[in-house]
Amino acid sequence: MTDMVTARSLLDRLVAFRSVSRDSNLELIDWVAEWLEGQGITVTKVPDPAQPTKASLFAQVGPDVAGGVVLSGHTDVVPVEGQDWASDPWAVVERDGRLYGRGVCDMKGFDALALAAMAAAARRPLKRPLQIALSHDEELGCIGCIPMIEAMAGLPRASAVVVGEPTMMKAVTGHKGGLAFWVKVHGHEVHSSLMHTGVSAILEGAKILMWVNEMNAKGQGAAKVSPFVPPWTTVHTGEIRGGTAHNITAGLCEFGVDFRVLPGEDPEDWRRAFLAKVAEVELGMKAVHPNARIEVKERFALPGLAPEVDGVAEGLVRALTGDNGSQVVSYGTEAGQFQVRGWSAVVCGPGDIEQAHKADEWLALSQFEAGWAFMEDLIERLCA
Ligand SMILES: [Zn+2]
């Protein structure tokens, strides 16, 4: 079997695992670990400390020295419910130069290439190591990778991390971070004719939403030169519900508040500013009724990827792909999680994000082949 054929058959196998983020990924992780071990590669599984049904893994081939390269992928995929697929999403179908299946693009295509690259690299005289990192819960806000990345501190430090999210094999050097909250405003119900004695959860929640609007206006006004579109941190509410009748001060109003944070700004500053606003509104509510309160639940916090100055990872990918353009994207990836922990990171993988998460998700065969060419050149480089 050529290595490319190995990669292709690995893709079939990986897609067949229904590793939707809400479900266990242990079957997939165990199978991959066993497959790598079959190639003579030692694997470290990292169980999720909070969820016994989930795990990540990492492995290394080559000498135990610093300066290697990490290939980073996630094992979870988005659900298929409610999507109209032309063929079974859990079986890779090849037609018209395309591979169809859930996760072929995001991102089991890259996972398969990375695994085949590990096996190929294990047979080569590497001077620097190749490492693989396969995470879980990426689609839930890039949270599952954290214990794995922390455990990887025990490996010789790699000089670059390539996160294989679909970029059409272009170097993506930056993305915004994310911070998401769910807010529940608990008011005090009275007849609205006596609203001065009640607390309307809707009107109090609106004060927080006014702050959201203010932050957007302020950000836009102070926009700096930046490759990001738009070049400021945006704050958004995409869902809201509350109230029961026109003449009752609302007892409950709940909504989401999501930040897309420009790299270079500290998400902690945004968290503090937001929570200070919530506390201020709550204080006013409690002055009317002591039981009125605001609950805030954090949904996720995801560091952005800041374009690095003379970044090693970016330089590596540019050398391997010949891509000299400059690209940043608006979706989050695990590259930010690696970068905040001290690695040089870049996003580069086969396929177009446009084809991800949809019915009939596909990956062009030519992209899969370009991905394999990338792996071969990378191995060559690690031998030099
Ligand atoms: Zn992905």
- Please identify which CATH superfamily of the largest domain we are dealing with: Zn peptidases
What overall form do the CA principal axes indicate?
Answer: elongated
Oligomer: single chain
Instruction: Give the N-terminus to C-terminus distance in angstroms.
Output: 25 Å
Mean pLDDT: 95
**β-strand number:** 16
Q: Give the helix level as a range of percent.
A: 25-40%
Looking across the biggest beta sheet, what order are the strands in? 1-2-6-3-7-15
* Cα-based radius of gyration, to the nearest Å: 24 Å
Bound molecules: zinc ion
- What's the order of the H and E elements? HHEEEEEHEHEEEHEEEHEHEHEEH
Q: Would you tell me the structural class of the helices and strands?
A: alpha/beta
Low-confidence stretches: none
- What is the CATH third-level topology name of the largest domain? Aminopeptidase
User: Largest beta sheet, briefly?
Assistant: 6 strands, mixed
Number of helices, where a helix is a run of at least 4 consecutive DSSP H or I residues: 9
> CATH architecture of the largest domain, please?
3-Layer(aba) Sandwich
InterPro entries: AcOrn-deacetyl, Bact_exopeptidase_dim_dom, Peptidase_M20, Peptidase_M20_dimer, Peptidase_M20A
Domain Peptidase M20 dimerisation: 173-280
Protein name: Acetylornithine deacetylase
Organism: Sedimentimonas flavescens
